[in-house]
């Protein structure tokens, strides 16, 4: 779950060689994730605060503030926020007949996927400008594409260095496990029940999952449940007891203990804090103020 602001353009007047698709900012909850998934566009993420992990082509990267990661079209990717210090990031998506050629002229050439940048504020300013251009007009389409080219001009001259990766196979078994948990988190699932559903040995499943995800499967299952619970606490007026039942807890006491252990707050404290729209802890005050006004979403990007 995350709080996000974004601009997603749907209609176009021109067929551009480089075309703005969408952009935004997001503050994620602990262990919020996206994927494994294939995307239609190039999407460049910039980490502003906190940390997380990015998995692509059998490599994993642990990323923190100042790092950037690129998602290429039609490649399987997965990314996840840290449990203790979840990331805040912004993103810009683009497409077009010349998109690949321009990417290959940048520091992301030769299938590089991550960089550490010295120009983070410049990229952030451009994405903030893109957010203001949210009308479906010719003038604003041209303005968005102008900002996109400016973004890449900065990227071409940016003094970057690569982020070290770990060679890890993101196995089909781990992908199946993630997908199964996200479909059945509302049930009282356990590591054993997941193993039975996937027809795999429990110990082997646990080892395989921990090796790739750097967390045990039991914690992952709990994080999926509590991320959805956080979404419900903010987005609805359902009681804590109702939400506990929705994510597979039969006892409000056990749910509250698990939630406080996971987030540092009880469910009611979390709901009250978000209702007051307290500061989100982001260094850029303008972005922080914008994100404070947003509802918690299941997934923005």
Automatic annotation (TrEMBL):
Residues 175-273 form the HTH araC/xylS-type domain. Signal peptide: none annotated. Pfam families: AraC_binding, HTH_18. PANTHER family: ARAC-FAMILY TRANSCRIPTIONAL REGULATOR, HTH-TYPE TRANSCRIPTIONAL REGULATOR EXSA. Gene3D superfamilies: Homeodomain-like, Regulatory protein AraC. Keywords: DNA-binding, Transcription, Transcription regulation. This is AraC-type DNA-binding protein. It comes from the Bacteria. It comes from Pilibacter termitis. One of its GO terms (molecular function) is DNA-binding transcription factor activity. InterPro entries: AraC-bd, Homeodomain-like_sf, HTH-like, HTH_AraC, HTH_AraC-typ_CS, Tscrpt_reg_AraC-type_HTH. The lineage of its organism: Bacteria, Bacillati, Bacillota, Bacilli, Lactobacillales. SUPFAM superfamilies: Homeodomain-like, Regulatory protein AraC.
């Amino acid at each position: 779950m995350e709080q996000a602001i974004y601009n997603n353009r749907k209609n176009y007047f021109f067929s551009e060689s480089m075309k703005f698709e969408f952009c935004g900012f997001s503050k994620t909850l602990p262990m919020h994730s996206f994927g494994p998934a294939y995307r239609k566009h190039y999407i460049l993420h910039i980490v502003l605060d906190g940390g997380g992990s990015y998995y692509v082509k059998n490599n994993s990267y642990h990323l923190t503030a100042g790092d950037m990661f690129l998602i290429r079209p039609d490649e399987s990717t997965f990314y996840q926020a840290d449990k203790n210090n979840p990331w805040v990031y912004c993103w810009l998506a683009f497409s077009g007949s010349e998109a690949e050629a321009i990417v290959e002229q940048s520091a992301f050439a030769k299938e590089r996927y991550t960089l550490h940048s010295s120009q983070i504020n410049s990229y952030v300013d451009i994405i903030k400008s893109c957010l203001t251009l949210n009308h479906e007009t010719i003038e604003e389409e041209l303005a968005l594409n102008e900002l996109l080219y400016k973004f890449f001009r900065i990227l071409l001259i940016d003094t970057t260095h690569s982020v070290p990766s770990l060679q890890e196979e993101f196995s089909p078994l781990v992908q199946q496990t993630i997908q199964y948990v996200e479909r059945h988190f509302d049930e009282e699932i356990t590591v054993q029940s997941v193993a039975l559903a996937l027809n795999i040995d429990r110990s082997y499943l646990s080892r395989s999952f921990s090796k790739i995800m750097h967390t045990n499967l039991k914690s992952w299952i709990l994080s999926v449940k509590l991320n959805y619970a956080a979404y419900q606490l903010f987005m609805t007026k359902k009681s804590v007891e109702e939400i506990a039942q929705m994510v597979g807890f039969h006892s409000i006491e056990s749910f509250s203990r698990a939630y406080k252990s996971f987030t540092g707050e009880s469910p009611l404290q979390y709901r009250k804090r978000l209702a007051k729209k307290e500061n989100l802890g982001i260094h850029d005050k303008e972005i922080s103020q914008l994100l404070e006004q947003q509802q918690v979403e299941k997934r923005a990007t």
